[in-house]
Amino acid sequence: MRSEKDILFKKLNERFVRAFATYKLLEDDDHVLIGLSGGKDSLLLTELLARRARISHPRFRVEAIHVRMENISYETDTSFLEQFCATLGVPLHLVTTNFEASSPEEKQKPPCFLCSWYRRKQLFNLAQQLGCNKIALGHHQDDLLHTCLMNLLYQGRFDTMPPRLQMVKMPLQIIRPLCLIPEKLISQYAELSHYEKQVKLCPYERDTNRTTARQLFEQAEALNPEVRFSMWNALEREGKLG
Fold first, then answer.
1. Alpha-carbon gap, residue 233 to 218, rounded angstroms
2. CB under 8 Å to 192, separation ≥6 — which residues?
């Protein structure tokens, strides 16, 4: 008899496979760099991609990067990440960086924006150094739906992060293979797999517009449990998912 963990992994993997088939996220000879923050989403992303890479259809390689930000007080146990990646056969690159708001424009930006931008910069730089053509990020379905609400509330547009995005200024694609997976399934699997939690969370992570959008989405789900599918179908109809 299969365990609860095995049954759940099968469900997660089916959604993962459906995502890369539907949105053409993976192809033969791809070289993928995973943004591994150390949270449950990026850990699952690494596990799914590593297991899939052992299968010859499609044929692709994966590596991972973990970026440590010196001047933001959050912390991940890098020894756990190293062991986790080694078990899966995924090369892991540890990079330390920092950011400073130097220009007047940057000084007006919140710390979350600057931290994210400088972390992404390290991903782009390493991806090009390694010859990767794709960067995989651990955004799940809830993230895309929350982004849609944020864009409506604060930007006045109906849009979200697409499952696949071609960068304009560099030969890289951003892919989001967890885009069809609800966050609650990831949380359940993380518990069953004993994923190690981050040692210290970012002090700014709950003080953002995304938190407001999450709360609004939870209220909408309480009113209509099918709101997830209604929003996703609307995004599909409008061509916002690629």
1. 18
2. 4, 5, 8
126-144 residue pLDDT tens: 999 999 999 999 999 999 9
Who contacts 131 (Cβ-Cβ below 8 Å, separation ≥6)? Answer: 31
Q: Which amino acid is at 36?
A: L
C-alpha span between 108 and 39 (Å, rounded): 28
Q: What angle do CA 163, 167, 170 make, to 5 degrees?
A: 145
The answer, as to whether pTM is greater than 0.70, is: yes
60-69/30-35 β-pairing: parallel
Tell me: the pLDDT tens digits for 101-111? 666 665 666 66
H/E run at residue 63: strand 60-69
Cα–Cα distances in Å, from 133 out to 9, 40, 160, 170? Answer: 27, 24, 22, 9
Count of all residues that appear for the chain in the document? 242
The phi, psi pair for 85, rounded to 5°, reads -70, -40
